[in-house]
Amino acid sequence: QKEVEQDPGPLSVPEGAIVSLNCTYSNSAFQYFMWYRQYSRKGPELLMYTYSSGNKEDGRFTAQVDKSSKYISLFIRDSQPSDSATYLCAMGAGNMLTFGGGTRLMVKP
Amino acid sequence: DSGVTQTPKHLITATGQRVTLRCSPRSGDLSVYWYQQSLDQGLQFLIQYYNGEERAKGNILERFSAQQFPDLHSELNLSSLELGDSALYFCASSAVLAGSNNEQFFGPGTRLTVL
After folding, report:
1. Does B2 sit within 8 Å of A98, measured CB to CB?
2. Does the bond joining B108 to the residue before it have cis omega, within 30 degrees of 0?
3. Does B98 touch chain A if contact means CB atoms closer than 8 Å?
4. Contacts with B71 (C-beta within 8 Å, 6 or more apart), sequence order
5. What is the pLDDT of residues B44-86, one digit of tens each?
6. Distance CA A50, CA B112 (A)
7. How far is B110 from chain A (nearest CA, A)?
8. What residues does B99 pair with on adjacent strands?
9. pLDDT tens-digit series, residues B25-55
10. SS3 label, residue B8
């Protein structure tokens, strides 16, 4: 079993929909959590970073962490075609990051 | 633009050869990380340097090595290349060694093709 599990998708939604992306993890040592967006053949771009349970909001993006359930989510409101990309969750303990395999999102106009 | 630069963007070479990938971190960042991304393996951590010293190793092959120079740029050396080494190689940088402020910013990557 992988330390971080993420549904690879693809997830296809209409423009304007609310998108929910999720990761589960098994290592309780993870202390901080990130979401990255990666367009095809580009470098991952840091979207959200949090190190506590609860919600963190930034524009159309909300990151949610539930350490007791070992579950993190990224919500995208009013999704746009430009949000079409692969979304990677990442979790850290100390100086190491462990990445999920990524979920491919397609937002259709 | 993350502020992390990588060269070259693309590299095509033959099996058995040796290549060097270069990374310049964001201004002020002391940590440099190298990752390999292939279709079947996802994003895999290779190695971390902090202020010139190796600080963590992941799934890095013995044929691969890295270093960080006094100006903080880093190089990843890949030798005796095999077809399976074809992948995207990313460099990331962060301001700290570890802990709760360890946000990592990725460069655009080097696409390596081994023929």
Report:
1. no
2. no
3. yes
4. none
5. 999 999 999 999 999 899 999 999 999 999 999 999 999 999 9
6. 33
7. 9
8. none
9. 999 999 999 999 997 778 999 999 999 999 9
10. coil
